[in-house]
Design a protein that fits this description.
By secondary structure, the protein is mainly β. It contains 1 helix and 13 strands.
Length: about 220
């Protein structure tokens, strides 16, 4: 058993055609349990009929301060090999989204010395404008200035973290739930094999049980 300091939330199968249903009602009760370690049967456990090679995923809820044990078993008469379990946590991770913004504005035109440039003002028809004394009216020359800037915005994306893989850690695992969070259990049924190790031409169907157990978590320090 591998201890994982993680947590989980509600069990709901999201698979396609295969589902845990009444065909294998309470088959999960035949799985090896952890009663010797103080674990109790959890109502989120599931039983059902699956074809060899099927894959499904459930969402599970575990509560803060509880220990959980998860394992799976199959009707070996029809399903050969170990059920592959993966515990996946879907986490929202922050990242910065960068976007280039172009700004355009009208500013006074400057000469090489940094002084504003003037010219004789003209009316709508393009004629020069003069004041009452007959002197030409001057106005500041404007020009269009374009600039760019980087705008950062905090975004979140959903990433998958594999917390446990039975192919690496062995069948069955337990963990301490330090907080309440949503996790996902991926159940992968081994495929049927024919002669010479090749895939069988037909599918075997059999009962599979996903056993979820719980117990009160250990108290750190002097408990009351």
């Amino acid at each position: 058993m591998k201890k994982l300091l993680i947590v989980l939330l509600s069990v709901l199968f999201v698979g396609s055609s295969p589902t845990f249903a009444q065909d294998c009602y309470q088959f999960v009760k035949s799985c090896d349990d952890g009663r010797r370690e103080g674990f109790l049967y959890n109502g989120q456990s599931k039983s059902g009929m699956f074809d060899s090679g099927d894959t499904t995923e459930i969402t599970m809820i575990a509560y803060k301060g509880m220990d959980y044990r998860i394992s799976a078993c199959a009707d070996e008469q029809y399903i050969s090999g170990e059920i592959h379990l993966r515990l996946i946590e879907k986490i929202k991770k922050p990242y910065w989204e960068e976007k280039t913004v172009t700004d355009t504005e009208e500013l006074p035109k400057l000469d090489a010395s940094g002084d504003e440039v003037y010219e004789i003002a003209k009316d709508e028809d393009g004629y020069e404008i003069f004041d009452e004394d007959g002197e030409p009216v001057e106005e500041v020359v404007m020009e269009t200035v374009t600039s760019t800037r980087i705008v950062k915005k905090r975004r979140y994306k959903l990433t998958e973290e594999v917390r446990y893989d039975s192919k690496i850690g062995g069948p069955g695992f337990s963990f301490a739930s330090k907080m309440t969070r949503k996790m996902h259990i991926e159940v992968i049924v081994p495929g049927a094999t024919g002669e010479d190790g090749l895939a069988a031409e037909y599918l075997e169907s059999g009962c599979i049980g996903l056993l979820i157990e719980h117990r009160k978590g250990s108290v750190v320090g002097f408990g009351q």
